[in-house]
Amino acid sequence: MALIVQKYGGSSVADAESIKRVAKRIVDTRRAGHDVVVAVSAMGDTTDELLELAGEVAPIPAPRELDMLLSSGERISMALLAMAIHSMGFEARSFTGSQAGMITDAKHGSARIVDVTPVRLREALDEGAIVIVAGFQGFNRDTRDITTLGRGGSDTTAVALAAALDADVCEIYSDVDGIYTADPRIIPRARKLDTVSSEEMLELAANGAKVLYIRAVEFARRHGVLIHSRSTFSSAEGTYVLGEGMKNPRESEGAAAMEEPVVAGVATDLTQAKITVAGVPDVPGKAAEIFTVVAKSGANVDMIVQNVSAASTGRTDISFTLPKADAPTALKALAAEQQEIGFENLLHDDQIGKLSVVGAGMRTHSGVSATLFEALRDAGINIEMISTSEIRISVVLRGSDVVDAARAVHTAYGLDSEIEAIVHAGTGR
Fold this sequence. Notes:
By secondary structure, the protein is α/β, with parallel strands linked by helices. The chain has a domain at 3-174: Acetylglutamate kinase-like (Carbamate kinase), CATH 3.40.1160.10. Helices cover 33% and strands 24% of the residues. It has twelve helices and 20 strands. The strands form five sheets. The protein has an eight-stranded mixed β-sheet with strand order 3-6-2-1-9-11-12-10, with helices on both faces. Helix 1 packs across helix 3, helix 8 packs across helix 9 (327-336) and helix 11 (368-378) packs across helix 12 (402-412). The chain is globular and about 80 Å long. The model has no long low-confidence stretch (mean pLDDT 93).
């Protein structure tokens, strides 16, 4: 017998029929002799609909009340799912995040988990019940308020439960069959990976891959949780995310480990903007002044490029990328300090896209960057910025070029599959 944590996203529990299908999968896992804990998201587009409704009654909803509202979506899902399991003859108990012992900090809308005390969950498991937990939410001990975890919160809930309960595996279910070498909605011939390392998955998630959220992958890596990404709509084995020292469940005893692929995948991101601080005096300390201002605005900077200064003026340009939503506040903060910093003007571009190539094999193989740049050259696509890590190369392009660039690069690295990927519900979640 194993303890299995399962997470089902919004598309997996979108309506009554979907909930019954998920309930059957959970019951089948229980029939196989396993203990089961389930983290569930709100049904379909419920969270977006609640956000829209909140915006109609209040231009700027109070953060505490918004968390109270948004957390209701998962509570609906958990109760309906427990009812469906009961109707199949199995005991199920649903718990809110606070009842499950999901303790967070006090930041509404993007709280972070600080502790998990799953006392009631263990009691329910010991009594033979299937446990259903509302994802995306927690409880702050100091304020005694409900909090929500932000994007990917249900993934993070599932991984945190798996860590606290010492589960054998955390299965993250969505509407695709696993983790692919690229988004199958963009590249239909993307190939499903049998395994991916946690460090590769962190890079893919950080650079636009949406099948798993970065906070969940980071939590799993830190706490040694084995993630199995698979489809709600298929019984096929999915993709295992392996942390350092983890054994591949697909390999038999004594089998030799497979060599890491040079490139594991291609990720795209159209959610960023570029700001250029033009005419910056090229003297020590100016970059520090600029990014101190940006940091105080709350913006999260990604890529940074500084040009060589012009000999005639002694000035340079510094460009950086950040989420589009953060750009207005960063621009306003920088403009307020223009005279103090001494730059000439600000340029804002929200029509960019980022393409990233990720693979642990980059450490030991030459020519990876050459293949990327040759593929983009042959496709007639211009590069605006470049950033690298040990296992990643990212480039900023025109947003309109990102899809063509991804397809060209995916083919150039030999990642295309012979068959088209299946996206069952169309969202990737």
